[in-house]
Amino acid sequence: MQRIYLFVALFFLMMSCACQQDPQRENNNARNKQTPVVVVVNYPLEFIVEFLVGPEIRVINPVSPDADPETWLPNDAMIQTIQESDLIITNGADFADWVKKLSLPRSKVLRTSLYLKDSLITVPDFEVHSHGAKGAHSHAGTVAFFWLDPALMIKQAEAVAQKLMVLFPQEKKTVTVNLKKLKGSLEVLKQKLDQLKTEYAGLQWFSQRPVYQYLARRADWSVHHLHWKRHLNPDDNDWKKLKKVQEEHQIPFMLWEQKPDEKLVKELQQRGVASIVFDPLTVKPVQGDYISEMKRQLNQLEQFLKQHSIARDTSKK
């Protein structure tokens, strides 16, 4: 009889433990579901949000590091994740094809370009197309790489911070403190560009496409984009166009988004054009972050200009 009572007692004890564990498991699941999710379209915005918020908010940059965030498209599972997120932060200026193609809930979208209206740069010949017998023609477009001017990235960060504090008031203190730190770091980068403006104002550059206009404006430079196709070597027509521009402007430098072929670098050198890589940081760098990489690249740019200004001075003598 005592054994029966013992088994009954054990049975009720086990049932009691199970009842206590299930709600706990449900609470954990509910907590995971309640974790706020913020989706971003590129690395600079990912950097801003991760800098501002604490670990209680999940930041998703759906684009893999080896993909191009301008042309990448999500699969069905990622589309659902994006649409169910609490906030979708876009760049604007038609950056990221998927933003234009997906049906996104407007109430969840923060378009940072709206906060930069007075600072946007529109290029009249942004992209050149050829449509059959009609020949080549160009389209105007807004340059999307705002973050290459740290002053504009500060405005983007302020817009993001304001939205985060409205959506997640519990994060207000964290976001406020971190925004101040971020603005301090970006101010250092801005001062570096202002220094380059003082020392090297009025420089002219080539680039393959409209990428560096905001950086150039901050430094009082101008950029002539060549419409060279990425990942393809220039053809005879491309070289003819460069020669024509060179005859008119005598442009000494070219900015590259990625390291060009050495043969191409030498060909440009023979035409009086020195090359330097300046990664626009649309994807996360292999080492460091936005701040450290911009610092490194601006220092590298300064050294490049020092070397080539000496070379140009020598050639004039």
UniProtKB/TrEMBL annotation:
GO terms for molecular function: metal ion binding. It holds the Pfam family ZnuA. Gene3D superfamilies: Nitrogenase molybdenum iron protein domain. GO terms for biological process: metal ion transport. InterPro entries: Bact_metal-bind_prot9, ZnuA-like. Residues 1-20 form the signal peptide. Belongs to the bacterial solute-binding protein 9 family. This is High-affinity zinc transporter periplasmic component. The keyword Signal applies. Keywords: Signal, Transport. SUPFAM superfamilies: Helical backbone' metal receptor (SSF53807). It comes from the Bacteria. The keyword Amino-acid biosynthesis does not apply.
